Automatic annotation (TrEMBL), chain A:
This is Uncharacterized protein. It is found in: Cytoplasm; Nucleus. Its main location: cytoplasm. Residues 32-164, 190-257 form the Exoribonuclease phosphorolytic domain. Coiled coil: none annotated. CDD domains: RNase_PH_RRP45. Residues 272-295 are annotated as: Disordered.
Automatic annotation (TrEMBL), chain B:
It is found in: Cytoplasm; Nucleus. SUPFAM superfamilies: Ribonuclease PH domain 2-like (SSF55666), Ribosomal protein S5 domain 2-like (SSF54211). Belongs to the RNase PH family. Transmembrane segments: none annotated. Residues 1-24 are annotated as: Disordered. It comes from Zasmidium cellare (Wine cellar mold). Pfam families: RNase_PH. This is Exoribonuclease phosphorolytic domain-containing protein. InterPro entries: ExoRNase_PH_dom1, ExoRNase_PH_dom2_sf, PNPase/RNase_PH_dom_sf, Ribosomal_Su5_D2-typ_SF, RNase_PH. Residues 41-201 form the Exoribonuclease phosphorolytic domain.
From TrEMBL, chain C:
Pfam families: RNase_PH. Residues 35-61 are annotated as: Disordered. Residues 46-212 form the Exoribonuclease phosphorolytic domain. This is Ribosomal RNA-processing protein 43.
Automatic annotation (TrEMBL), chain D:
InterPro entries: ExoRNase_PH_dom1, ExoRNase_PH_dom2_sf, PNPase/RNase_PH_dom_sf, Ribosomal_Su5_D2-typ_SF, RNase_PH. Keywords: Exosome, Nucleus, rRNA processing. Residues 10-129 form the Exoribonuclease phosphorolytic domain. It comes from the Eukaryota. The lineage of its organism: Eukaryota, Fungi, Dikarya, Ascomycota, Pezizomycotina. Residues 226-250 have a biased composition (Basic and acidic residues). The keyword 4Fe-4S does not apply. It is found in: Nucleus. Residues 226-267 are annotated as: Disordered. Belongs to the RNase PH family. This is Exoribonuclease phosphorolytic domain-containing protein. Pfam families: RNase_PH (PF01138). The keyword Lyase does not apply.
Amino acid sequence: MPREADPSNNEREFVLSALRENVRLDGRAFDQFRDVDLAFGEEYGAADVRIGKTRVMVKISAEVVTPYADRKFDGIFTISTELSPIASPAFEVGRQDQTEILLSRLLEKTIRRSGALDTESLCIIAGQKCFHIRADVHVLDYDGNIADASCLALVAALMHFRRPDVEVHGEDVTVFGLREREPIKLQMQHQPFCITTSYFDGGEVMLHDASLLEEQCREGEVIISINRFGEVCQISKYGGPPIDGLSILTCTNMALEKAKMLDKVVKAKLEEDEKKRDKGGLMAELRADNEREQG
Amino acid sequence: MAMLADRRRMNAPPGGTSPPVFASLPEAKLTKPIRTRNPDEHRKIFLRTGVVPSASGSAYYEISPSNTPRQTLVPSSSSLKITCTVHGPRPLPRNAAFSSNLLLTTHVKFAPFATRQRRGYVRDSSERDLGVHLETALRGVVIGDRWPKSGCEVVITVLEGEEDGWWADAEEGGKAGSWGMMNVLAGCITVASAAIADAGVDCVDLVSGGVAALTAERNGEGVLDPCPSEHDIKAACVVGYLQSRDEVTEMWMKGDAGSGSEALIDNAVKAAVLTRTVLAEAVKEATEMKIGKTSEAAVETTNTGKGKTKDIQMTG
Amino acid sequence: MANDAETGPGLTFPQDTFAKLTPRPYLLAHLKHKTPVRPNGRQQNEFRQPTINTGSLTHSNGSAVVRVGDTAVVCGVRGEILLASDIPHPPSDDLEEQDLVEELGLVVPNLELSTGCSPAHIPGNPPTSLAQSLSYRISAVLHDSHCINPDDLRINYTEPKTEDDLPDEPPKEVTKAYWTLYIDILCLALDGNAFDAALLAVTAALRDTTLPKAWWDPDRESILCSPVVSDSRSLRLSTMPVASSFAVFSTASHLKKREEAQSWILADADGFEEELCDETLTVVLNSGPSTGSGTTSILKIEKTGGTYIGKDVTDLCVRQASKRTSDIKTALGNR
Amino acid sequence: MGPDVVNHPLSRADGSTVLSNGLYTVIAGVNGPIEVQRRDELPEEAAIEVNVRPASGVGGICERWMETVLQSALKSIMLVHMFPRTLIQITMQITKEPSIKLRRSLYDFALMPTLFNAAITCLVDGGLPLATTSTAALAIISPDDQVVLDPQEKEIASCKSIHAMAFSANGDQILTQSSGDLNHEDWGKVADMLKQACIAAIGPAGEDTAMSNGVVQPEPWLRQHLEDEAKSAVRGKVKIEAQGRSREIRSSSAANSKDENQPDSAT
Amino acid sequence: MSGPNIALPGQILGASSSNELGSGTHLHNDQLCASISGPILTSKPSNSSKTSKAPKLSISRTTGNLLPEVGTTILGKITRTNPRQANISILALGPTGEHVCRDPFPAIIRQQDIRATEIDKVKVAESFRVGDVVRAVVISLGDERSYYLSTAKNELGVVMAVSEWGNQMVPVSWREFMDESTGAREARKVAKPV
C-alpha cells in the first residue's frame, strides 16, 4: 500500500527553519486557522466542513431500534469514522490504520463521552424502543488537521439534524415522516470542539491548524477538546518529546479562543441555513429568537 | 443487536428471531429411537471420493439415516453427512516461512443447517477443537518430508451433524454431553483420509476413525458406533487408527469409563477396523476408475479426434 | 503425441497443458474450428443439465441439492419466528402488501463460497466480493419477483371479543408474529456460473419448504407450533424465477481495430471459460410456479463488462433463456 | 438536462468530481496509477478497485455488488494495459440520497447511472486514458406503460420496471441493469431510448440519431463538460507541472497520459 | 492392462531386503509399504548393473508428479521482470508439460541462469517479457518462496511469445521472435524448436 510520502529532508529543513524565523509556508500566523468554511446540505444533518484544503463531511441519521438491555432509558448514539482512499491513497479500505483509530477515539471522547448529546432524550419507550442516532464522518480531502475539522463537522451536523417526531399510545409507537410532522431537533448539552496544537522544537514553536506537511514535520501534538465556556472534555498527547506542563495551560487558553471562534461559525451558519429554509416565515423568526435567548 | 450486524452478509431482521417451539401433542408423541443393530455392528457408511473435481482430492461421507417415515415435523434424530476437500500440495502463502515439510492445515465447519439449533457462519470453539483433533489424527499419517515448502489444506464441511443425545431429554433439562462431536470426529478422520488418498499425497497408511461407548443400558458392555439418541451414554472414546501398523494416532475419551477404559479403547479400535473396510474399498474403487480413465484418455489421444486435440506446431 | 519426449521436447502439448499455458488461444482454437465445440464438449448455446434433489436435510424446513456439471450447491431453508412486538420500527400502513417481506427482512439468503469448493475459496476468510454479490443478487431476485407471499409468513391471532367492541363487529385479527426464512446456500463444488445453480437450489428448496402450523398462545404469550405433519403447510411460491447466464468470449482488444474483433456467446460458462470472459449477461425470467402455467415475463436483465451484448444479442439470449426456463421447470416439476 | 458536474473539488485525489442530479449527489475521486499490493497485482494490466460508500452507515453486500458491476464495466473502457502492475483506485462517496425511501433494488438501480457518470468524469479529470467516451442514464416504465427518462423519485417509487444503461459514443452497450415486470418489446423500447439519450449526452458524434423520432434531445452535457475540462486542463498544465512533490511511483507513461487526457472519440 | 494389482497406502509390498525402494513407497520396520494408492510397478534389475540385484517396487501415481523437483523440466509464464531476474509461474511439469499444476508455483530465473555463454552480457529485458511461455529446468528449491530455474541450454527458453501488438510470434533465430503480421522483431532467449 502506498504510504503517505514523507517530505524530503530539504523540505523538512525548510519548513522548520522558516518556523524558527516565525514564518509559516502559507504565510499564516502561528495561531491562525486556514479559512474555515461550513455548509449544510439540503437535508437535515449533513454538514460539509472545509479548513483550507482539508474537507470533512458528516451525515447524521436516525432509526428506531431496541435499546441495549443494560441501558434501558438511553437512546443509542454511535459515531463511525472510516477513512477511505478518496482522502488520501494511504488510507486503505477495510483496514483501520493509526490515523483512523486515533480519530475515532478522539471523537468518541470529545462528543460521546462528554455527553454532548443527551441520549436520554432519545428514549421512546424504556427498554423497548429508542432512537439510534448515527453519525458518519467522511473525510474527503486530507491536508492535515482532520481532528479539528471532523469534530467541527460533527457538532455542526448534530445541531443541524432533526429527528422524526413520534407519538406513543401505550405500547404502540407512531413515527411520523418528515413531511407529516415537523421533525425535532436533537438535545445538545454543550458543543465541544477539538483544537489541535502542533509543537516543534520541544514546544518552542506551537501551531494551530497544521497542514499535512507541517504535521509530517512536527514533533508532537496536544489535542484539547473544549467548549465555549472553557470546560475541557479531554486532553491528549500521543507520545512525542515531553513538553513543559505549563505550556498545556497556554494551549488550553488558546484552544478556548479558537473554540469560541468555531462556535460562532457554527451558530452563524445555522442561522443562515434556517432563514433560507423558510424564508420570511414568522415561525422562523420566533425560533431564531428563542435560540438566541437560550444560547 | 443492530450493532452486531455482519456487513458482509445478509442479517437477521433487527428484532431478532427465535426457533419455533413445538407444543407437545398426544398425537405426535415422540419415542426415543431404539438400537436395533448388534452392539458390535456399525451403521451403514456411504463413502465416495472425487466429488469435487476442482480440488486436488475430495470425498463425501454419509451414515445413512434410519428409514423410518416421518410422522412429526420434529426429526427424531439425524445422522452424519460430511464433505471434505483437499487442496495441495501447493505453494505456501507468500508470508509463510520456509518449511522442509508439508504444512498440513485442517478446517472443520458445520453448515448453518447442520444441527437442530441453527449455527452461525463464523467458526466457534467446538469447530476449532474438532479441527485440532483432526490435525492430530492426520499429522503422523502424511509423509510430510516428501513435500518441502508446500502446504496442504484439508477442508471439512459438516452438512449434517450427529446429535448429542436424545434431544427430548435435553429439552427437559437432562444431561447434554457433546457425544455427537465424537461421531463427527470419527467421520472427519475417515473422510479426510479418503480425500488425502484421492489427492495422491503419500501416507504411511489409511487412517480410519472409530467410536465406542459405555452405556447405561448395558451394564459394562460397550457398543460400537453409538448413535447418541439411542443410548444413555456414560463414556465414549474416539480413535484414529492405522490398521496395518496397529497404531493409534488420535484418541479422545470423555465421560466416566471407570475401569472399563481399556475395553472402551479396544472397542473404538474395533469400530475403526470396521470403518476401514469401507474406506479401503472406496479408495481402491476410485483408483481403479482413475486408471481406467487414463488408459481411456490414452486411447482417445492416439485416435486424434476432431479439433479436440489441437497441436500447435512451431514454424521456422 | 504426449510421448515424443525421446526425440526431445517438441512444441506439441497435451490439451490440458495447452489450456493451462495459453488459455485464450486454446479456447479460440475450439471456437474457430469448422465444427465449433467448446472445450467442455458443449455447443455454444448449450446449458449443462441440472440434477436436483430435495428434502435430504433433516434439520431444514426445506432443502435442495443441485448439481450443474461440476458446480454443486446445497441450500437449506429454516424458518424461525419474529415476534411482531420485537420489530423496532413497524412498517407504515401505506406500505404495499407485497413489499412486506423485504421491508421486514423476512427472507435472509446467504451464499457461502468459503467451503473449499475451489482452490480459490479457502475457509477462514470472510465472504469475498463475489460471494457477497451473489447473496445480494439472490435476495434481489427473491424480493423483486415477490415470489413469496407475505400471507404465508404471517402468524395471525383472532383477538377474543371484549366489552368495548361493538357487538356486530367481526373479530379482530392481528398478526402476532412472522416466519423468517433463513436461506443458507453452500457451494460445495465450483466450476463456473454459481448464480444460476444457487438460484435454482434456492427455488427448489423453497418449493420443498413446509412450515408447521403456528399459533399465538395467549397464556404463554408466545408462539407455539404443531409437530404434526398433516397440520403443516407448504410454502406456495407465487412465481418461479429462473436465471440463465451467458458469458462472452471476445478477441476484442484496445490494440486492434474494432472490425477485427470476433465474439462468441457461451451459455452457462464453466470455470475455465469464466476466467477468459470479461462480459457477462444474466437473464432472469419470472413465470407461474408450475410447468406451462402462467405467462413468462422478464424480471431482470443484467449485463456488464465488454461491449458485445447489445439489443440484438440480448434478444437472442432472452429467447434461449426462455427455452432454458421451461427445461428447468420440467426438471423441477418431475420431482 | 444533464447533471451538475463540479470539477476537481478535491486536492489530494488525482482526479475528482462532484456529480449531482435530482436524485443523488456523488463525490468521486480517483488515485492512479499507484502502487498495488502484491496479491492484487496483475502482470499485464492495471488492477481497478472501485469503492462505493453510502451516505450513512457502512457499506454492505449491495455496495459490494455495485462495485463489482461498475468495476467490470469501467475496465472494459479503460486502457488498463498501459499501466501493468499498478492500481487505479476509484472511490465514490454518496452525499445526498432521494428524500423518500425507495425499495432496495430501486434505490440501487437509480444510483447506478450516477455512479457510472461520476466515475467517468473523475477518470477524465485524473487524466486516465479511456478507450471511448461513455455515459449512463436511467429510465423507468410507469404503471401505465410509459417510458420515462430521468425519472423523479416519486416516479421511481411507483414504477413497473427500472433500467440503468450505459453506452459509448459509438453506441456500444456497456452496462445494462434492468429489473421489474417487463416484456421483450418494452425492454427494446427502453434500450433504444436510453441509447439515444446517452449518445445525445456525448454529443454530435451520432448526428443521424439526434433528430429522429421528433424526440426532444437533451443537451450534450458530457461533451460540454469534457470540453470545458480539456480547456482548463491546457490552461492549468503549466501549473500542474510546476507542482511540488512528485508521487513515488508515477511511471513515465502515466505522466504522459496527462497530455493525452481526452478520450479519442471526444476529439 | 486388465485388472492391475492395486496397492493402498500402508499395504505391505514385500521385505525391504529383497526389494528396492521406488516412488510412492516407504519403509516400515523391515517391510516395504505403499504410501499412495495405485498400480504396483515392478522394474526388473538390469543385468548390467551389478550393485543392485533386487527388483525395484514402486506405485504409479495416478495423479502424476505433484511438485517440481531439482532437474524437473517445467513450463511456465513470466509474471514480472527486473534487471536481475525474471519471475515466472510454473504451470506444468515435464518437457511437454504432461502434468498440469493445479496451483502455479512461483519461481525465479536469475540473470546468470538465462544463458550458458557470455553470462555477463545477458540482459533480462532482452530475454523475457511478461506473458512469455518458457521452458526451463529446476536447479534448486530456492528460497522460502521461489524455485530457482535455469534456461541455459539450447532447448530451453521462450517457446511462445506474443508481440507488443498482441499477435502470436514465431521464432526466427536463437535470439529473436517475429510478429508475422507487423514484421516487427523482438529479442528473446529462444528455445530451440525441435
